[in-house]
Amino acid sequence: MRERGLANATTKLIAAAAGYSEAMLYKHFTDKQELFLAVLEERTPPVRIDLTAAGNGDLTENLVSLVEQLMGFFTLTFPIAASVFGAPDLLAQHRDGVAAHGRGPAGPVLAVQSYLEAERAKGRLGSGADTASAAHLLVGAAFHQGFLAAFEGLDSVPDAAAKAGGIAATIAAALHKPEPA
Question: Check: CATH 3.40.1190.10 for 5-175?
Answer without folding.
Answer: no
